Amino acid sequence: MVKSKKVKESTHLSEVIIHGIQEKKGNEIVRLDLQNVYSSVSDYFVICHAESTTQVRAIAKSVEEEVYKSIKQDPWRKEGIDHAEWILLDYIDVVVHIFKTDKRQFYAIEDLWGDAELKYFQSA
């Protein structure tokens, strides 16, 4: 019972994050479901990319605002804000990766988690 409540909360959190990305027109939004992947670090990864560092920062800010407005939670950890080529927002159960387009292609995170179930979302 506790697990299903936690999963439901992390699913809701991922949906709020996706909405924040859509608000700033993030490209190729994908949610990797890692719940059934052995030794996964979180329930979900949410990944997107943008053409400029300005848009990468705007997406990260939008995600933070939407999550705080919805569930009053700040990221546990943030990385990459200064250079904005790959910003990571860690909400423990959901980790957000916002890439500049070339960095997403280079790191290909989706390929590293081949056992994860992928779900794609449209930009708003």
Short structural description:
This protein has 124 residues and is α+β, with helices and mostly antiparallel strands. It has helices spanning 2-23, 53-71, 101-107, 109-112, and strands spanning 27-33, 44-50, 77-79, 86-90, 94-100, 117-121.
If you had to describe this structure to a student in words, what would you say it looks like?
The chain is an alpha+beta fold and about 120 residues long. Helix content is about 40%, strand content about 25%. It contains four helices and six strands; from the N terminus they run αββαβββααβ. The model has no long low-confidence stretch (mean pLDDT about 90).
Q: What is the N-to-C order of secondary-structure elements (H for helix, E for strand)? A: HEEHEEEHHE
Number of helices: 4
The major pleated sheet works out as: 6 strands, mixed
What is the rounded Rg?
Answer: 13 Å
The percentage helix is 40-55%
User: Which consecutive residue ranges, at least 5 long each, have pLDDT under 50?
Assistant: none
